[in-house]
Amino acid sequence: MNFSMDSFQLDGKVALITGAVHGIGFEIAKSLATAGATIVFNNLTQQSVDTALEKYQQAGIDAHGYVCDVTDEAAVNNLISKIKKEVGSIDILVNNAGIIKRIPMIDMSATDFRQVVDVDLTAPFIMAKAVIPDMIEKGGGKIINICSMMSELGRETVSAYAAAKGGLKMLTKNIASEYGQYNIQCNGIGPGYIATPQTAPLRELQADGERHPFDQFIVGRTPAARWGNPEDLAGPAIFLASKASDFVNGHILYVDGGILAYIGKQP
Ligand code: NAP
Ligand code: GCO
């Protein structure tokens, strides 16, 4: 069979991107729309959903927005049923919704730790469990889990986040293993350091006008010598959501400017 660039097209596909009201999720949703997908997203509040719907409209995208907390299994099951009735069953799930709490581990409460794991790991499990039966019935589907560099590396103050994202890497591999036989591909995208609201505190200008020390650290550790932009994730997302990746399964695609490959500039 000759390869065709049509393999990257998503026309007729319904894509659900969780938490896609700004940042990485919003850009991934726009990229999937560019490839032809119908975009569905959720967030925690009606206000954030309504604001995002306007942003999608301004981008020429007729998106479908719903209020749903991805950690609430009953609410997620209702959401998937509602989407199936109102839009269609889901062909592509992007588990994007996520939180981080930057607290030294011995100062972190178990409640805080559990909340991060609940959103960043348990919720992708709940979401995938809710969409896989329909994917099996349809003859296949795509699940993309937004992992992290912290799926591979640790750093101070992000113990819960790294544990969750490390677990999400292995959940990705396990879904791939268990459901690959149904033509479901489950892969991860591991963004490096991306300029979004989540990392804004790490890039704030200091009182003296200097760049944040962490900002300087990351730029120095990244071969591309810059922070990533959410738009850098568009192409990888289209690839993993499309037929072009039908034989890619259980893979974490790091989109990190090379930081994971680099020991760091010699002094
Ligand atoms: P962000 O701007 O904070 O966006 C995360 C989104 O998830 C927000 O819209 C948030 O809603 C939503 N959300 C949080 N908890 C939720 C819940 N329980 N139910 C439904 N929605 C929920 O973060 P981002 O930087 O775009 O990151 C998106 C994903 O990429 C996350 O999984 C993050 O861990 C991952 N990631 C980010 C980077 C980076 O450098 N930025 C790098 C690697 C991986 P509200 O804003 O309304 O709270
Ligand atoms: C942090 C950052 C990172 C990024 C991302 C890196 O505090 O170290 O928030 O965790 O969000 O996950 O890939």
UniProtKB/TrEMBL annotation:
<dbReference type="Pfam" id="PF13561">
    <property type="entry name" value="adh_short_C2"/>
</dbReference>
<dbReference type="GO" id="GO:0008874">
    <property type="term" value="F:gluconate 5-dehydrogenase activity"/>
</dbReference>
<dbReference type="InterPro" id="IPR020904">
    <property type="entry name" value="Sc_DH/Rdtase_CS"/>
</dbReference>
<protein>
    <submittedName>
        <fullName>Gluconate 5-dehydrogenase</fullName>
        <ecNumber>1.1.1.69</ecNumber>
    </submittedName>
</protein>
<dbReference type="InterPro" id="IPR036291">
    <property type="entry name" value="NAD(P)-bd_dom_sf"/>
</dbReference>
<comment type="similarity">
    <text>Belongs to the short-chain dehydrogenases/reductases (SDR) family.</text>
</comment>
<dbReference type="GO" id="GO:0008206">
    <property type="term" value="P:bile acid metabolic process"/>
</dbReference>
<dbReference type="InterPro" id="IPR002347">
    <property type="entry name" value="SDR_fam"/>
</dbReference>
<keyword id="KW-0560">Oxidoreductase</keyword>
